[in-house]
Amino acid sequence: MDQLKQQIRIGSWVLVAALFLASVWFIQSISRMDRMAGLDQTITVSGTGSVFSSPDIAIADLAVSVEDTTAKKAQDEAGKKSKAVVDYLKSAGVDEKDIRTSGYQIYPQYDYLNGRSTIRGYQVTQSLEVKIRDLEKANNILDGVVGAGINQVGNVRFDVDEPEKLQAEAREKAIADAKKKADELKDQLGVRLGRIVTFSENINGGIIPMMYAKDSGMGGGASTGALPAGQNEIVANVTITYQIR
Fold it and tell me: CA-based angle 228:233:238, to the nearest 5?
């Protein structure tokens, strides 16, 4: 008899524990469903912010190209001219850290006669990327590198040295624009906004590259005059999704 009572008591405890666990699971499930339902009830707004800034650096792509009968002679001559160019740039106030080699190529040069090709020599091209921080000197420096040995000038592009600051400012304006729209929209719809569910951004903008050339080719002639730098515009677009409460 006592054993039967003990079994009934244990069974009751097990049943109570099972009911308790079931109720906890049920409450948690309802809570999860409410949260999921809340995520379905959202408002998405977008905002745009832009910042204008005058460029503070010019970046020029330069190259020395030399052809000679052997690769060694061409390399030596290209190295000599490149050193002269670097020396000139330093004397013009360009910091050594703003001068870097961006490319180095060696190509055989052929003559074609009666359907046959023979190597007449080798062409060596050493490319430099130069950052000019004093924009007022940019035009004179580009004239000077030609006299120092540069025979190929690519494009000259204008930019800002620390674009991250402009990007952060544009982003801040875009977020403020999106928040303003969200406040207006919630009042019009008669709802309250909860936490931010998603956020995305897209930041772009920059200077249109300006081309530089000599009037009479790279060997001489008058320069094109002052280089217009224009203005740099950084545009940020953001999208924010709010939960509706």
Answer: 170
